Amino acid sequence: MKKQFVLRCAVVCAAVALCGVFTGCDNQKSKDTGVSIVNEGSQAASGEASGTEASEPELIQIVRKYATEFDLDQYVTLKDYSDFRVKRDPVEVSDDDVNDLFEEIYLNSFPSDLGIKDRAVALGDSVKIDYCGKKDGVAFDGGTAEDATLTIGSGEFIDGFEDGLIGVMPGETVDLTLTFPEQYKSEELAGQTVIFTVTVNSIIPEERLDEAVKGIIPEIETVEDLRQYIYDYLVMYSQSETQEDYEEEIMDTFVTNYVEFKEIPAEWSDYYYSQVRNYFITAAFQYGLNPDELVQEYYGGADLESFAKDYADLATRRDMAMQAVARKENLTLKSDGELEEILSKYASDAGYGSVEEYLGEATREDFRQDYNYEQGFGFIIDLASQE
What we know:
Elements (H helix, E strand, L loop, with lengths): L9 H12 L19 H5 L10 H13 L7 E3 L16 H15 L16 E10 L2 E14 L21 E7 L13 E12 L5 H4 L9 H36 E3 L4 H21 L4 H9 L4 H25 L7 H14 L5 H5 L4 H22 L2
Antiparallel strand pairs: 1-6, 2-3, 2-5, 4-5
C-alpha cells in the first residue's frame, strides 16, 4: 500500500498516466491555458458536478463516512456473485519472440576473442567493430563506439558503411568517406560528408557457442540455458503487462453485472470530480497546455468537464462496490485497535520509524478506506481467477 493514501478516485489513474505522458518534458514557460490562477481550481471545482455547496474538506469527510460508517445497503445491492469468474487468456510466447531476443543478447554480448579472424568479412556476417565518425576532423556525438555489433546487409548504418566493410580482414582498420541522408534526424549531420574510421575486431561464427554465453547471467552456462531464461522472462513480462488489463476487466464485469446501484450519492461523486478536475487543471498549467486539449489529446475526451464527470461516476461506482464487498465478506478494519495494528505492521514492513511517518499527510481514515477497498478488490480478483 502506497505511503500517500488517497481515496479511490480517478485522479490516481490520471496521475499515473500523466507521469508517463510527460516524462522527460522540460519546464516550459506558461502559455495561455484559459485558467487565470491555477490555485483557484480547488475552490472552483468543489461542488460543480451537482451544484452542492459543500467545500472540498467537507466532501472528504462525507465520503469517508459513506465508506466507513453509513449503511451502504441503502445505496448498493450486491447480487449473488459466488459464480463470478473472468477467464484469463493464457500467455503465449512465440518461438520468434524468443529467438529475436536471444539473437540480440547473444550478438551484443559476444566476446570478440571468440570470433573468426582468419577470413575477410562477407555479406551476412555479424561483426564486432570499433568506429569513430568525424566531421571536418572533429568527432561528432553518437558517432563513436567500441566492440559494437553489426550485421552486414542489415541496413542499420547509413549507406556505404556496411558495404565498405566487405572484404576487410579482422584486425584491419579502414576509413570510410560517407554522406548522411538529406533527411537525417540530426540537422547537424543531414547531408554532410563524414569519415568513419572502422576497425573490424572479429567475425561472429554462425554457430551459437556455449562459451559465448557464460557470464552473461550468473546461472547461464549454455546456449539452451540462455534460451530458457529468455522464454521464462518473456512469459513473466507478458503476464505482468496483461495483469492490469485483466484486473480492469474483472472490475468492469463485476460492477456491471453483480452490483445494483439504487442511488449515487452526489457528494461522493462530487469529491472525485473535484479531484480529477483539479489535477488536470494543475497539470495543464504546469506544462503550458489547455486542460480541454490535454484531455482530448491523451484521453480522447470531449473536454475536461465531461471527462471529469464521467470519470467521477465510474470511480464512485467502483468505490461503493468494493466497500460493499469488503463489508459483506467481513474484510474491513472494524476497530481502532485493529487499524493501529495493521498500520504498525505496514509502517514496519515499509521501513518507516513510526505510523505518522508512514502516513505522511494522509489520515488514519484515508488508510482505512483504502485498505477496505483493496480488500474488496482483492477478494473479487481471487474469486474471478478460480478455475
